[in-house]
Amino acid sequence: MISHRDRNAQRIAALDERAEALRLKPGMGIADARAMHPTLDIVEADPQADLRLLESLADWCDRYTPLVALDNTDGLFLDITGCTHLFGGEHAMLDEILARFFHQGFDVRTGIASTAGAAWAAARFRGRCIVKLGEEEALLAPLPLAALRLEPTIRGSLESVGLRTVGAVLAAPRAPLVRRFGAALLLRIDQALGRQNEAVSPRLPIAPLSVERHLAEPIILIDDIERLVFLLAAALKTDLERRDEGARTVALLLFRVDGVVSRLVVGTSRSMREPRLILKLFQEKLTAIAEDFDAGYGFDLVRLAILATAPFDMHQADLTDAVEDSEENLALFADRIRARLGEGAVLKPIAVESHLPERAVAVIPYWQDAPQRISPPKKPAGPKELPSAVPFQPERPIRLFQAPEPVEVPASEIPDGPPRQFRWRRALHRIAKVEGPERVAAEWWRKEEPTRDYFRIEDTDGRRYWLYRQGFYDASKPPPRWFMHGVFG
Amino acid sequence: MAINAVARDTVFALRRQIAKIEGTLSERLEAPAGLDADRMLVRRSGVAESHGLLATGADHFDAALNGGLPRAALTEFHGAETRDAGIVAGFALALAGLLLKTAETPAPVLWVGTAEIFREAGFPYARGLETGFGIAPENLLYAEAPKVTDALWIAEEAAGLTALSAVVLELRGNPDRLDLTATRRLHRRAQAAGRPVFLLRQAALAEPTAAPVRLVVAPAPATLRNTMAGPLEGTIGRQGIAVAISKSRAAQPGQFTLEWNPDERTFLDRKHAGATHQQPWDIQKRAEDPVAVVPLPSSGTDPAAAARPVLAFPPRQPPPIGDQPSRPQRPAHRRA
Questions:
Q1: What is the CATH number of domain B52-273?
Q2: pLDDT single digits (tens) B239-287
Q3: Is omega for the bond preceding A437 within 30 degrees of 0, making it cis?
Q4: According to the model, what pLDDT value does residue B253 have?
Q5: Do A348 and B310 touch (CB under 8 A)?
Q6: At what angle do helices B180-193 and B148-159 cross, to 10 degrees?
Q7: Which of A399, A408, A467 to mutate to test the interface with B (most CBs of B within 10 A)?
Q8: ipTM of predicted complex
Q9: Could you read off the pLDDT of A62-114 as tens digits, one per residue?
Q10: What is d(CA A235, CA A219) in angstroms, rounded to the nearest whole number?
Q11: Residue A351 and residue B240: Cβ atoms within 8 Å?
Q12: In chain A, what are the domains?
């Protein structure tokens, strides 16, 4: 039995058949239940864990249709339009779903109908029935109002005027119903009867292309999975060629026999078709997760889905095929590292226009394109324009600390001058030469940041540092702090 | 290049004998024309490529290295302490800048490091690399690996790519994974691809590796800035780099002080540059003689930049006599 806290009282949230047999009901106080049956086993409800379980079930139901949606906290919608023939018709599909859930240890109620509302009602109030097109009304009429997915307040007021079944509401004239109970009631009725469309939004975006293979004998070995990935990728290649596209994001879904679904996603820097290369990326991914990869009793369904595509630029190699496409090799190299080590493994710097040194360079993942707005467009050089002078480039350190490290400056020359010695990482550095200050202020729209005076400093051994003082000396304020921002090479 | 393997073996055996007679190393003998096999011949699409050496431009240093650093090999750079990471990386990146300068189509330089070293020694800063070594941001790639094993894997994969102009692998200390086998794998791949792999080892002890050359890099005091009126007191000019050849098959051990010229992008021998050993800068001098510092463009082609009021350090006005700062305004060491 599961309890939850409702309005400051512990109440029964859910209970199994044996508890039901003891005449306990959901909503009953735990104290009352304990008084009746002191030996009850009560567990606190955990909605997060319930949701996780439901999501993993939704993942697993992906094997029947890509359109799986969550229904509140206790149901799943599967849009099986056009999928039933793959499983031998609606009856066979229903049987298979029930059998598989039963073997996983779940007790499920199912219903198939041509509208989401009717299927919901069929699953909850009939169980294991298939409602044909046009039979919705016959199904709903004898059912209680709860079958219409109504708000409890509307339901209560309908019942108070004697409308206790769906049939009674359907028989009543529509206009007074709207006036009295609002448009939501008729919307639900129309949705259940198919007069109005109801959108069931799937949990995951639908992959433009996907291929899968059902296996009679579950596979366990990583080698077998890799071989299968290659075959599936080869099957996808023709589809991609027909669409004149290449894959940018590929997902591999491994359905384990006991219902666990592993989802491996790899991204590519440029659109890709070659099964060999797709396999290579998945090999890296499988190597990366090799330690906590659990094949269990094996996988009985393997699906390769292309989640994002991009135009594929064909280019002709010369006849000898001698010139290697080095750019492509580099992209593949970056993708493999990304597949194994994660998104931020290969980075590229982008120059950004900013005075602040740490903002002047943005470091972005290799496969991302630089945002357009960070640098203004270059003016086209007019015929009269003189060749512009070499832009002034101030000397900058070659390494920058991601967070400037505070240094202790026991004594500086005249208040705003450079330090004479400083202590950084507990070592005392004596200063031999100083250049500066170079005053760097934030852009005018960032007024809150204090200005910095940067000094290039060489210690007695010849190491060069980039120190700055944040703010100015002011008698009324605490003395400004010094920071180490970078080292020169 | 149509010398078969047997003939080449014979030539090498003869070279070794000659070297023995002359009392030198066979690597130091002049290489016969058309036979550059010691530096690995790579046949790619039927054409043999000779990789040769990367001359730094500093004559004494190049001569000691018998022509320069090998282009297609693993080269080790050691720094004694983590705070020397700037100068060690600077030296290697300057070499990469040299490579880019001579390359027809510049290819990216990949800098691989563990998260630890990037946190301890600072993350590479593209602006500084551009102004200092001429490596444009589009020719830079970084790879940050969580562990040494991953960094080695990335470097190994990258070393075999011809799409990169150089691979810089930076590690700290003496990790177990960086053994003879790992360095040998890096070296073989570098040889096959014809690209250098620079292994930067910060705060590490020398241990046996497969790298043919190991250099120990340390900072040396910079020269003064060269201005119109000669060297200017109290400025920091070109960085000095103290390089010791600690291991090389061809070279003798030696200690050199080099200077990197960021404008010409070349190394100079400190003795050739004729730098005087300057006095430590007297701090008081600046207050007496405030001077706006304008760096002299060394290439002599850029008067426009100097004419602009760039970063002329503003001369600070000495405070009027008798106008003493109040006690809390004074720096701590002068508070009476």
A1: 3.40.50.300
A2: 889 999 988 877 777 889 999 988 888 898 886 444 444 444 444 444 4
A3: yes
A4: 79
A5: no
A6: 20
A7: A399
A8: 0.75
A9: 888 888 888 888 889 888 888 888 888 888 998 988 898 888 888 888 889 88
A10: 20
A11: no
A12: 2-45 (3.40.1170), 48-193 (no CATH), 209-317+324-340 (3.30.1490.100), 399-487 (no CATH)
